[in-house]
Write a structure and sequence with these properties.
Number of domains: 2
Order of helices and strands: HEHHEEHHEHEHEEEHEEEHEEEHE
Radius of gyration: 19 Å
CATH class of the largest domain: Alpha Beta
Helix content: 25-40%
Largest sheet: 7 strands, parallel
CATH architecture of the largest domain: 3-Layer(aba) Sandwich
Strand content: 15-25%
Number of helices: 10
Number of strands: 15
Length: 273
């Protein structure tokens, strides 16, 4: 069984480039401790490399960190991106923060038309600029060497010039108590600035983000309007969302009749400042 499990693990990593330990445990119906025991021989033989929370193929080691993160839970992130794409109309004004999931959202939105996109991510800007009449407004500032994203006071000032229909935010995790958290203060600052300028705030997160913690609090769950995820979360989280008036949207959610998507307030108009 151990040999077969190692083969299954290796097959999954080769298919996805990297795999999360918890996801492997769920997929193979074993504990995370069992997975850790089974991956150790693969690590010892150099067939995979361990990173925090998962394993990846050795040939991903030389890739920039952002590109490696793009490979983590890639299928789930693409599924979330497809769900978000179907909730956005041609011509909508949206804010996309920096993150691998929002980058997949940008790829999914490329075939929409006439979007107005505000972002601090060069990765996202490059995927949407000059495509199907999209207008992309890129926040300036010092770029991160990891993911080519701009942060700082200038990016917060820049985004404050716009009013958007939706702000789509990626986060490091959503804690069991309902806090949205990230790893860096400057990422949280941009997220909060985007929320202030949007009619609705959506959290774009695959199911592995539920129950995860990180050091910087972005906001509370009650501060957002919608969680877009790849499949229905556990009952405890669903109840938490219901108590705090937050919708959860998956591929199984029923589309509202008579309109593309319900919004809570009158739609603002974009200004170019």
């Amino acid at each position: 069984m151990s040999f077969k499990r190692q083969s299954d693990i290796l097959r999954a990593v080769r298919q996805n480039g990297s795999c999360d330990i918890a996801d492997l445990a769920g997929h193979l119906s074993v504990s995370t401790e069992t997975i850790r025991r089974n991956i150790q021989p693969l690590i010892d033989r150099g067939e995979v490399i361990r990173f925090h929370g998962g394993i990846m193929l050795p040939d991903h080691l030389e890739e920039p960190p952002f590109q490696r993160r793009m490979q983590v839970n890639k299928a789930e992130k693409r599924k979330v991106a497809a769900i978000a794409r179907d909730l956005i109309n041609d011509g909508d004004t949206i804010i996309l923060d920096n993150g691998t999931t929002t980058t997949y959202v940008a790829e999914a939105l490329a075939d929409k038309s006439g979007l107005i996109v505000i972002t601090n991510s060069a990765q996202i800007a490059c995927r949407l600029a000059a495509r199907n009449g999209h207008r992309v407004f890129m926040a300036g500032g010092e770029l991160s060497g990891d993911d080519a994203a701009a942060f700082g006071h200038s990016t917060v000032e820049f985004v404050s010039q716009f009013q958007a229909k939706f702000a789509l935010l990626s986060v490091a995790g959503i804690t069991a108590t309902g806090d949205l958290v990230d790893f860096h203060m400057f990422e949280a600052e941009f997220s909060r600035a985007a929320m202030r300028q949007a009619q609705e705030t959506w959290v774009i997160a695959d199911h592995t983000k539920f129950g995860r913690d990180a050091p910087v609090r972005v906001c509370g769950l009650s501060d957002v309007d919608l969680v877009v995820t790849d499949h229905s979360p556990k009952a405890e989280f669903s109840q938490l969302c219901e108590e705090r008036g937050v919708r959860v949207w998956t591929s199984h959610s029923a589309q509202p009749t008579g309109q593309k998507f319900p919004v809570k307030r009158e739609l603002p108009v974009i200004t170019e400042g």
